[in-house]
Inverse folding.
């Protein structure tokens, strides 16, 4: 009898406790969960277009923004034009744009030019043959930008603009130069044998000349 009464009391208590929290509006500590909040955002991929001409509308196609939450989980955030501020198509030069999601911000940069770059062309470099394991040498490489207003501009290029070079395999390499999404190509060769010095094995037949007489290298062997 006592066990039955005790069991009845426990069942009543189990029913009344949730009912109490329901009627009073208080939080039940047994079921209280903490919702993770957005901690910060980062631009994990810039838009496909980052170079604009005057009065051109902003295009955020390809832009990816990742949110990191207080539980350290991440997710890709939905971003539209209304989340972007700082773009002015009437102002030339570099422009930092701010992405705002859930009160958190991140920044990426675009550039507004008088005319857009249409293509690039390449001349050089001075050297096109390299030894196995040797770094590429860009000395003499000239990259010319061709713009929509028909102007030509020499573009600044570093090794960061170069891809396709592998010094650890022999043969001809197609090197790609990329400037603001435009590409051009040149070729180099990686070889086991590379000229490191020369020696004169036989001098020219003539060594004496009259004043103003042209040089004659007949007989010269190198």
């Amino acid at each position: 009898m006592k066990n039955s009464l005790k069991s009845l009391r426990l069942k009543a208590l189990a029913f009344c406790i949730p009912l109490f929290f329901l009627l009073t509006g208080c939080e039940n500590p047994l079921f209280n969960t903490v919702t993770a909040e957005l901690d910060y955002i980062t631009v994990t991929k810039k838009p496909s277009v980052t170079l604009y001409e005057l009065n051109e509308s902003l295009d955020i196609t390809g832009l990816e923004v990742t949110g990191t939450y207080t539980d350290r989980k991440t997710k890709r955030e939905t971003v539209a034009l209304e989340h972007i501020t700082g773009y002015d198509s009437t102002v030339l030069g570099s422009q930092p744009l701010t992405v705002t999601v859930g009160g958190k911000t991140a920044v990426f940069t675009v550039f507004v030019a008088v005319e857009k770059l249409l293509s690039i062309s390449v001349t050089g470099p001075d050297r096109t043959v390299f030894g196995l394991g040797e770094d590429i040498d860009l000395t003499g490489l000239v990259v010319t930008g061709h713009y929509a207003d028909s102007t030509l501009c020499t573009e600044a290029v570093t090794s960061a603009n170069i891809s396709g070079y592998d010094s650890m395999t022999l043969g001809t390499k197609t090197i790609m130069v990329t400037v603001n999404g435009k590409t051009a190509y040149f070729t180099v060769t990686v070889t086991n044998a590379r000229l490191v010095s020369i020696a004169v094995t036989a001098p020219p037949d003539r060594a004496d000349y009259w004043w103003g007489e042209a040089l004659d290298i007949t007989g010269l062997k190198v």
Observations:
- The chain has a mean pLDDT of 85.
- Residues 2-24 form the longest helix (23 residues).
